[in-house]
Amino acid sequence: MAGTIYSHINSNKWGTFWIILMFPVAYIISAYVFSFLSYFMIAFLDDKPLYFIDGIIFSNEILIYLPWIVFAALIWIFISWFFGGKIILRGVNAKEIYKKDNPMIYRLVENVAIAAGLPTPKVYIIEDESLNAFATGRDPEHSIIALTSGIINKLDKQELEGVIAHEMAHIGNRDIRTMMLIVAGIGFFTFVGAVLLRSLTRRRSRNSKDGGGELIILLIALFFIFFGYVIAPLIHFALSRKREYQADATAALITRNPDALANALKKISVDAQVESLHSNPASSAMCIENPLDKNKKSLFSILSGMRSTHPPIEKRIEALKQMAS
Q: Which listed residue (159, 167, 244, 289) is catalytic?
């Protein structure tokens, strides 16, 4: 088991490296293609010059904006690495608690962290009566566990300990870093696209006659939305659903009580929908169980595959029961 866990940790370290590399590379390539297509849409009839550099076609506009495209990619990496966790928590209205606020929960997290040999993460509460939880952060020293108020109130102590151990396993296995980069990246690009579309609406409401400027804003907004809703989720597909099985197994190893986590998952499966995550579906991949309404399908969920980020909970329970026996 230990060898499997350490192999998983090493795999996640490489996964983080490739995600950090793939996002800006895919972003720059997509920006180039989008700029090139936009160039023909706007100025094909104006006989503007094209340049061939090592077989790649450039226009004056692409050459001017390319450094800014690269700069934006670097800004995304910086924001995601240092502030991704806080952005995710703010998106789900999670509030930090301290030992004096809820001594029982805080002691449970401390005890599980000690058993796992990890630093005690910060604890956040999401005010929602459904049952769900997730962990985030860039490393164990900057980790966070978020629990819904419902999961605290409706699970017994051993079941809750199993859930916390599952999230602690994601911290120890370094799953939190790869997922944080993916979720923050998707959120960043879709947010920028939405802001640009709103700014375009305001410009039109002011009867602006700058048709060319509006078209440029629209094209840039469409690029960000396209990248956030299509390209970034494709990178998300590279993450294996096996991480949930691995976290379940690691949690059972930490608590020596796989039955408790199995019972918790059974209760969670009845009501895992978290309302604050419906407006932030990218974060659903981090949760112990899919928090989205399974009966409602949005364009984002279809394109991104966010509804297939978790293996069937029945199979997870079965695997835990086999461990217990």
A: 167
